[in-house]
Design brief:
239 residues; eleven-stranded antiparallel sheet; 4 helices; 16% helix
């Protein structure tokens, strides 16, 4: 009898190669775009898209009536992480504060530099997660309900009736508000804030809540000559 020829099992197939990951370069030009709830105007960017996210670098677009020029990185996921690093110019601070859920807090036009990381795209998530710095110079605005001039007039007059002579408004108009804000855990630390107005100048440092709910600043104030004459004549006489 003859034996059947011995056969070897077929060699195992090598696993299929996963191939290279996604890596696309795209030039973007759009009159209008949205990012979460944020509206962007005149977007121009070079985008790099990978399996994990997207980077726009360089990126330029209009936002809150001003311009953003820099870079923007977003990771993919239900709650995306972001990193923004840019130069800002002409930003309408009142519009930005309203978008963040704090209307009527401050106005003016902002220029500066921004370098911030965080999570989420809605205002509340950004506020709570933002970490980084904003160097700002805001021109020709008003801080609502600050009341610092009124408090200074009363404090330096040393007379009980001085409050009636102080400005009836608690708003604080300014020509320039400049400083660096370091953000973390929903609040911002300020170590070099300078506010210059018609009647008073301040040099301040301290902490503010990003939602505008609390301000804790200390520093020096200098009254205008007119307010000094009004508020300080009793203090000068007593001392």
């Amino acid at each position: 009898t003859s034996m059947p020829p011995r056969t070897s099992p077929p060699p195992a197939k090598a696993p299929a190669s996963a191939g290279p990951g996604l890596n696309l370069g795209i030039t973007l030009e759009a009159d209008r775009a949205t990012m979460g709830d944020l509206a962007l105007e005149k977007l121009s960017a070079l985008a790099k898209v990978t399996d994990t996210g997207m980077t726009l670098n360089p990126a330029s677009f209009g936002i809150f009536g001003g311009r953003y020029d820099g870079a923007l990185t977003l990771t993919l996921g239900a709650v995306p992480q972001f990193h923004v690093k840019a130069t800002l110019a002409g930003i309408d601070v009142a519009a930005a504060a309203k978008f963040a859920g704090n209307p009527g807090v401050i106005s003016g036009r902002l220029a500066g530099d921004l370098d911030i990381t965080g999570r989420g795209l809605d205002p509340k998530s950004v506020e709570q997660s933002a970490r980084g710095t904003l160097r700002m110079d805001i021109a020709n605005g008003v801080v609502k309900n600050l009341g610092m001039i009124q408090s200074l007039v009363v404090a330096t007059s040393m007379r009980a009736g001085a409050s009636s002579q102080a400005s009836g408004s608690t708003d604080e108009p300014f020509t320039h508000l400049a400083g660096t804000l370091t953000m973390a855990q929903g609040q911002g630390a300020i170590d070099n804030l300078r506010l210059e107005g018609k009647d008073v100048s301040f040099s301040l440092a301290g902490v503010v809540r990003l939602d505008g709910s609390a301000v804790d600043l200390k520093g020096r104030a200098q009254l205008s000559e007119a307010l000094t004459q009004q508020a300080g004549k009793d203090l000068v006489r007593y001392t």
